[in-house]
Amino acid sequence: MSIRPQQHLASEPDWPLAMATVVQVHERECAVCTNDFTTPKILPCGHLLCRQCVISWMDSKSDAGCPLCTCPIVEHQGNSSRIAADVVDALPTDSVMEAIVESASILMNDGMCTACDDLKAEYICMQCLERMCASCIKIHKKMVVSRSHDVESVSTVTPERLAASRPALCADHVTEKAELFCVDHNLAICTPCFSNKHKACPDVKSLDEKMKSAEDAINSLREKLLKAEENLKQAIDKLNVRLRRADVTEQQNMALLDKTCDRLQSMVDECRKQVKKLISDSVSKFKKSLCDVKIELEKRLGKVTSHKHLVTRATTVRPRPALIHAAQTLTDRVNSLDLSDELQADPLVISSPEITKYCDDVVKDISDELIGLKGQLIVDEPPVLVFHETCGTNIRLSNFRKTARKVQRDKDNDVLIFSRDAMIVNVLYEVRIDEINTPAECYVYLGVTRVLPARLPLPSWSDHLKDSVILWENGVRDKDTSTMTNVVNALEFLQVGSRVGLLLDSSNNLHFYADGDDQGVAAKDVPQPCFAFFNLSYNVIQVTALPTSERT
To answer: What is Dmax (Cα atoms) for the chain?
Structure first.
């Protein structure tokens, strides 16, 4: 069984709204049989299928779901023997779509006049649904029963308008106009039916009253669904943002890991090089000691061997007077020789204190690097505000680049620090003032910039902030307009412990925060991506980045 890929949602629940909505031709077609809907059933997921198509689909496979989105058609709950026809008949029928399809069929019929058969119909009666030529319309307008009917050109009538114009007819007398609605039997009825069949029913209301109540209920449902639809779209948009952020986070973390591992590898390689040198030096010293001992022993051996030859020759020749002479001489000589074979070399020392200390220092450095890496790895929630390591002069970063401290308290040199990563929408980036020099004159500049600068030549730092918005104690300065607004007066009352922050909303408006409170929009249409920056003026000594928080 082939299935068209289009997704057909149920018609608008509010009848007047549905009639005002043009249903395209393909929306009137069942996705399974590709024909106009016949008894369109509303599946739990909201898609429409012909009654018989749903039955055939359920019979074709066990535990069948919607052929368009796979959502369950029915929860079996252990009762898999239920007949498909019974299950489908329990599903609601989309009467609006049914009326539209029927009206479309009327409009699309052979296009000939109902009475003449041989003339093309140019008009249609919106009440009795008769198609008429120009001659028949004149007769239709003269007849008493139809003179009040609305007749329109076929070319201007849509199936929706035709369906909406059809009067409500009595459920029993299909030719009689219904004026009442029996709630007990859930039927639209005419006045005679009320007198004959429904007079005893306790809840019979005016059809107009019931229609108004139904329209109000459906409008309420529409508003509820519109709100839910918007909320779900926003939730999906947020998830898409987080998915994109996850990709960026993965790349940043991988780059950070590679950078750290390269640095650790360099440290290990240097450690290997230095320890090898220390070991080589120790072994070389030990080998030299052994060689010195060997040379000395070889000298002793040479002397012993030479004197052995002298003694051997003397005992072999043995001339009497010469032998006595030689005995005395050789005795004195041998007695003067060092015949000892015990000459000790210096011991081999490998685990020297120097090597141990060097290795311990490297291990500590590597451990610190790994701890630092853990602190710098970016996680999805929430993002971390850390300062860029290559930006700012006359400044020392610590606490994994979360704390910035001015090295020299130079009145002529302000200090800029920048966020390492681009700002994320609806996330508050804050810093806390930890130390100041002159409380009476404490102030801060802050803002955002499109391009992350390198170390800037100060004091003319503001000239180097391209595509930036700068907030200061008198307001906000936009580099393009140089306009001033008084939305950041809180900057004039800073002290130790004060917090200042920035937030970029989904409309690209830049908000200024003081001590966690939104002070309003400081700048509009801020282009992304952008980086937050904070300026440590001459009297602000140290600031610390605070944990970020998501705001809506």
So the answer is: 180
> Where are the strands (E) in 257-414, listed by range?
395-398, 403-406
Q: Higher confidence at residue 379 or residue 278? A: 278
- Look up tokens 């040198």; give the residue: 277
Each as own residue / partner, the long-range contacts of residues 242-247 (CB below 8 Å, 24 or more positions apart, any chain) are: 242/380, 245/380, 245/424, 246/380
pLDDT in tens, 241-265: 778 878 888 888 888 888 888 888 8
Q: Phi, psi at residue 266, to the nearest 5°? A: -65, -40
Residue indicated by tokens 């809840």: 203
Please give the Cα distance from 6 to 31 (Å, whole number). 7
Residue 503, pLDDT score? 92
Q: Provide the pLDDT for residue 183.
A: 85
Closest alpha carbon to 101 in 8, 42, 25: 25
Residue 162: both structure tokens together: 């035709």
Residue showing tokens 């926003």 = 234
Q: Can you give the pLDDT at residue 20? A: 44
Say how far apart CA 210 and CA 4 lie, in whole Å. Answer: 38
pLDDT at 8: 34
C-alpha 102, offset from chain centre: 47
Residue with tokens 């609605």: 181
Cα separations (Å) of 217 from 2, 9, 220, 224, 534? 38, 20, 5, 11, 54
The type of residue at 512 is: F
- Indicate the helix (H) or strand (E) that contains 49: strand 48-50
Spatial distance between the Cα atoms of 371 and 375, rounded to a whole number of angstroms:
6
- Whether 459 has a pLDDT exceeding 50, the answer reads no
**What's the DSSP call for residue 238?**
H
In sequence order, what are the beta bridge partners of 47?
9
Contacts 24+ apart (CB under 8 A), 291-295: 292/345, 293/343, 293/344, 293/345
The pTM score is: 0.46
